[in-house]
Amino acid sequence: INAEYMGSVLLDYYRKKDLMDSKRSAVASKQAEYDSLELEHIVGYTGKYSNTIHYLPTNPNFYIYNIGGLVVIEDVQDKHNQKFLRGHDMHVCALAISSSSRLIASGQLGTAFARVPEAPIILWDLRSMSVLNTFKGLKGRVCLISFSPDEKFLAATGDNNTFVIWNCEDYCVVFNRVYEAPITVVHWGLMRKDLKHPSYTLITANANNLFVNSLEFDLATMQYNLKAAACQLPSSGLIRTYTCSYLDPTTNNIFVGTSGGELAIFNITNRIFKAILPVSSNGVLSVTGNGENIFIGAGDGRVRKLRGAETKWAIEAEIILEGKVSSLSLGGDKMIAGTSAGKIYQIQAQTLTATEISESHIDSINDIHFRKDRLDIFTTIDNSGIVRVWDLNEFFILTRCTSGTTTRPRGICVCIGEDNTIVSGWEDGSIRAFDITNKKFSALKWEISNGHKGPVTALYVDENVILSGGADGIVRVWARKAHTLICLLYTSDAA
Q1: Strand order from edge to edge, sheet including 396-402
Q2: 405, 429 in Cβ contact below 8 A?
Q3: 11 confidence band (pLDDT: 50, 70, 90)
């Protein structure tokens, strides 16, 4: 490689850089003249919040979930069929859907754009994909949301220990109270429809106690009032932190998960404790059921199927997923599960066989790069040190790559060469390359150790050279095949 060629490469590099800078400036100055880009598809799942994946009750071919500030409605069979609900300015952290699939409620983290971290809940009409109302009053974060069986009322809790019930018809506040301890379970029970004004049962849990609340219409005040009654606990006491719940409508027993990995069983009619069953380790994070079977999702990644009746239940089958199982939703003979690893699985309820239908980054994505000759393949790299190669035709991951070191460094930048080689820059100053394979993880192809003093922040690759920019303010030029240093350029600022 002669000096004339090197000069032409560098000149071309800086010309392109100057051209891109001028284009960015032109686009910024004419921003108002352009229509906003239409979002075509989104890949990801924010799996760190509980109960944020739901099948549509009236059509289990579709499910809803959250990613960032979006609510996504997606076809299980066709990933290209997505719809989006946009209205939040922070991450969506709570989701609920009404029994008729007509209404969706989504709550967010407290906004960072106001002095008070208000955490609103948006009520959506799924048929028109429009906002019906925005409920306010919670702060810090919306923790739980739940619709009444007839979707007339919406109950929700916030980080500030506030518990609110709204009327979904006229949007007024029915009940509002701040508790000393956070409410960790909100579950609507059976309702009486034979009255002019129906009465409702609402189960809540906080500070080791389970309460059976009745929401009834008071003719004297012409409004609904909430009255609470605690469930009777064993004489020896029951010190537990409750996390999630499933109500069996045939027996009126509620199964409540605990942070200790148990299912506590209470009868709602008599308001009494019946039994407690150890079912998992690292806590029960999600639970659902169909009467004869109960399915639990645990903090150790296990989904377990329990069969039995009343207080006698036995584990019939289990499967281990990647990450904590933060969400479970049952739709007919299938379940959909979301995990803290950013993965979504579809599970056969009968056999507990799982199919991964979505995978995503769970840390900040630092770089993205398309192949020059193909627009259907691109690669990403994130803070957790994982490189993923994506196929846009079916929105699935072809392969993944990691540094292979004991302590995984942050991934900073990435690009794809003309020969399908992935070249990546890392926080530890190394440049690492991988082939695109059909394996789950592709092995390291070659490595330039300590290519920079500090992180590698930028990369350029062609058939002859690799240019790498570092936080040390130096651009290094490497031979493409031999991976040896040709020359280096000092800059006044860090790359």
Answers
A1: 365-370, 377-382, 386-391, 396-402
A2: no
A3: low
